[in-house]
Amino acid sequence: MKEMIRNYEDVLDMLDSLLREPAEFWNGFYNDREKGVPFFENIPDENLVGYFKNGWLRPRRVLELGCGPGRNAIYLAKQGCQVDAVDLSEESLKWAHERARAEEVDIHFMNENLFELNVEPSTYDLVYDSGCFHHIAPHRRMDYIKLLKKALIPGGFYGLTCFKEKGEYGGADISDWEVYRSRSLLGGLGYSERKLREIFSGFSSREIREMEDRRQTSNVFGVPGLLTALFQKEI
């Protein structure tokens, strides 16, 4: 019987079905490339660019979670990184492949659910997530952190861009319990510096700040209402 809970994985699958946007949702979201979504532009996050400019990150092996149309993966490849980039949406990856070919960079794109991703332990120097984490339901955070710790080398970095609480583009300011009372992530959960430090307490933090507003520039992505963070796995 399909809807029978027999183990912990069945519980997770049931909760996923109540809260997670399916692949069809994201395929529809990326299908209209002209709808003016700010992060559709093919430019990298301003914080990610800054990490390389100030020497915190160097060209190494990278895993990007929720890569979308590939803008950050392309930047990372141009810095000399070996990039694996995963996304649930086939439509977003079609766009990402087109962009990568046009930019003449080699990126390994994977159409997978990140919770079913099979990675070798201590493989990546950097795991980067721009806009995926705030769509992760609370019951999946432990699996998310487990993936980070498995994927990263000792001393490896985890970079994050996510909704700030009550941000301009989203960021529901509700408790984890309220997510399940309302059976909704309300478009994406919002976070504060305190919440991020608590959730990722197993990592040391290099920087947590608001994203800079760079809408008047053309070479990097930066909008208000987002938080950026760079954590490091302990050696």
UniProtKB/TrEMBL annotation:
Keyword set includes Transferase: yes
GO biological processes: methylation
Methyltransferase domain residues: 62-156
Entry keywords, A to Z: Methyltransferase, S-adenosyl-L-methionine, Transferase
InterPro entries reported for this sequence: Methyltransf_25, SAM-dependent_MTases_sf
Gene3D superfamilies from the UniProt entry: Vaccinia Virus protein VP39
Single annotated GO MF: methyltransferase activity
One Pfam family named in its UniProt record: Methyltransf_25
Keyword Cytoplasm (UniProt): no
Protein name, as recorded: Methyltransferase domain-containing protein
Organism field: Halobacillus litoralis
Lineage of source species: Bacteria, Bacillati, Bacillota, Bacilli, Bacillales
